[in-house]
Amino acid sequence: MANVDKDVDLAVLLRISNSWSPDISDDELYLATRGYWRMSAEKATRVVQAVAVAQGVVRAVFDVHAWRPAPSRGAEGRLVFDGTPATRSADWVGTDVSSIFSPGSQNPVRYVLAADLDRVLTSRRPRRVGDDDLAAMVAVQEPTVAEQVTPIVDAFESDVVWHMARGDLESFHSNLLGFLMSTYPDAAAPLRRLFTPAPSGGKLMVWREWRHIDVVAEGRGGSDRFVIEIKIYSIPHPGQLEALASAPLPWSADHGAQGAPDTSYWLLTLMEPTFLLPAPWRRVRLDDVALALEAIALDLLGSDAELFDRYRAFVRRLVELRDAIDPRNQLDGPFWVATALGDSVPRRWLGPLQKMRYAGLAHAIDREHGGHVTLKINLTRGTGLMTHLRPLASNINRSVGWQLQGDQLRLVALVQDRGFLGRSTEHRARRASIVENEYLNWFDFHAAQETLGDLLIPKEWGPGQWNHYYPDFVYRYRKIKPGTTTRQLATAMAEITARTDTWAQAH
Asked: How far apart are CA 251 and CA 233, in angstroms?
């Protein structure tokens, strides 16, 4: 390795556990380590060595000679390096560097100063919890959220397909997918197989926006019947899916919430739902659609090939964006989009990015809680909103729970008894009176305070002081400081969720 500028040059540790096996060849190990990695081009110019890490252990070290962007459209922001085995690679292989990667974080990339690399890689002794923590010995950096997201957003902004889709993203996808499957039934077979595992082939009749369902399709002779509801930035509520399953179809007029016979129902989403799907719905990931589109041969699409190629790059880019903004990639970085991204993306992106960010937080809460948590995610007044509610054991018309809206942590109660719903001052007073007299001890922020400490900003509430949200919410809130990390929020929300479920069951 050439002389290292100790204040500038970097080494990058790259986690390749999914590609590594004990019998991997040297060439395969190099290819697995080269890329493609989501990191900034500017920072890559400072990287002089790359370390392959699998199962927390160094498997190879390479001197980096150059970085290049990924060659395919839709993978903007990913880089690949050209390099050769480092002179001291054999001395370093076998070192345990697991503490460089913080527990639970999904991001496979870590930077250290190149001058510190020898210090990181000198001990081959297996490490134990609490035994000289490497992360405490050297300065470790993860790629920032802005570093990962900005090149992808820039690619969207320069793509005509994105500007065509902006008005109604779900309709854009349903129109394109419906067109492909109906106009090119043979070429689009990989796509069709996502929804009918053993397609009969031949012509497919497709209805779009049928009774508010995005795609309804039927094959020749009544075969291959399926329904697709598409959600990109949001997830429908279970009640919405039940209503859509009840909607009449061209071949079934009256079938109820169980869905039409001999028909499969698919929810196509970019983000993983935060609740268990009601029957008969099953999920198809946009990731799977991207793979199916990759399997379609361009030469079978005639004059539509170029537009199709741009569309499948667009789908890949959406998946890339979701993964880049996922807060689980940087659990110990600030959660809120405005803090994490600053002014690095246009303001119109903040809403969609917040929804994706909240979806990632929901699954981080799941992990901390140790079991499935039903969460509702929405966007209100341009701000992300997450809600968890549980009905009281003694009265199913009343619920308690929490909301995270922007930097507000709310403890809430819903009073949905007949005679208590309404916008009037009288209705609000009735709901507040019930809550104050019967459920006052629910509004205790101690569970959050234990985790967040002084990140939870103090606020005093006097007798009779309540906030309201039409038609049935009564709540109190405390604000959370902007630098709060995803890990801290997930831990706090898991604690409050456990308290919600226990408290509701006891009341």
From this structure: 31
Tokens of 357: 């960010």
For residue range 375-384, what is the model confidence (pLDDT) as tens digits? 998 888 778 8
**What's the CA gap between 256 and 248, in Å, rounded?**
9
Cis previous bond, 36, omega within 30: yes
In the chain, what percentage of residues exceed pLDDT 70?
95
- Residue 482's closest CA among 447, 455, 445? 455
Q: Rounded to whole angstroms, how far apart are CA atoms 152 and 426?
A: 51
Lay out the sheet containing 473-479: strands in order across. Answer: 376-380, 383-392, 395-405, 408-415, 473-479, 467-469
Fill in the amino acid letter for 465. Answer: Q
Is 71 exposed, middle or buried, given 0-12, 13-18 or 19+ CB atoms closer than 10 A?
A: exposed
Give yes or no for a contact between 474 and 431, defined as CB atoms under 8 angstroms apart. yes
Q: How far apart are CA 251 and CA 21, in angstroms?
A: 51
Q: How far apart are CA 227 and CA 268, in angstroms?
A: 10
- In the chain the first and final C-alpha atoms are separated, in Å, by 67
- Identify the residue whose tokens are 């919600």: 500
CA-CA distance, 311 to 304, in Å (whole number)? 11
- Summarised one tens digit per residue, pLDDT across range 59-115 is 999 999 999 999 888 999 899 999 999 988 888 899 998 888 888 888 999 999 988
Question: How far apart, in whole angstroms, are the C-alpha atoms of residue 139 and residue 13?
Answer: 13
Side-by-side strand order, sheet with 204-210: 204-210, 213-219, 226-231, 264-269, 281-285
Q: How many Cα neighbours within 13 Å face the side chain of 62?
A: 26
CA dist., res. 75 & res. 477, Å (int): 41
| CA dist 2 → 47, 48, 63, 457 (Å) | 12, 9, 9, 50
Using an 8 Å Cβ cutoff, are 270 and 314 in contact? Answer: no
